[in-house]
Amino acid sequence: MTPLSKAVKAGGFVFVSGMPPQDPVTGEMVEGDIKVQTRQCMENLKIVLAAAGSSMDQVVKTTIFCTNVAHFATVNGIYREYFSNDEFPARTFVTVGSWPRPFDIEIEVTAVT
Q1: In a designed cystine with 111, which of 13, 54, 57, 62 is the match (CB 3.0 to 4.6 A)?
Q2: d(CA 111, CA 78)
Q3: Which DSSP state fits 82?
């Protein structure tokens, strides 16, 4: 078991750990292209935020970790679908080497509760 919490509430915020494209029921990584993986990450974030008493509308900061900067435009297109307000959260996009499991993207967020 990895020594981390999916989310921690502190000081009126909820800090959500990086969510990979993992099926929340089976625990298996969702296979597919960057679109499929990004959608799964975003859906996982929605689930964890709801469990912590928050939502995507309350996200103030995101960090996206991705194995290839060439995915930037595709990730942006899907990311935009999950934030309905006119003011998007602050965001950082970081290119990384790889993870110990086969996936290309992981997203973490900070939201108000």
Answers
A1: 54
A2: 19
A3: T
pLDDT digits (tens, 9 = 90+) for 55-101: 999 999 999 999 999 999 999 999 999 987 678 999 999 999 988 88
Which run of H or of E encompasses 47?
helix 34-51
Contact (Cβ atoms closer than 8 angstroms) between residue 108 and residue 41: no
Residue type for position 96: V
Give Cα separations from 24 to 9, 34, 78, 85, 95 (angstroms).
21, 18, 19, 27, 25
Q: Each residue of 30-39: pLDDT tens digit? A: 999 999 999 9
The DSSP secondary-structure symbol of 29 reads B
pTM across the whole model: 0.94
Domains of the chain (ranges; CATH) run: 7-112 (3.30.1330.40)
Helix axes 34-51, 72-81, angle to 10 degrees: 40
Tokens at residue 4, please?
Answer: 């981390």
Structural contact between residues 71 and 105, judged by C-beta atoms closer than 8 angstroms: yes
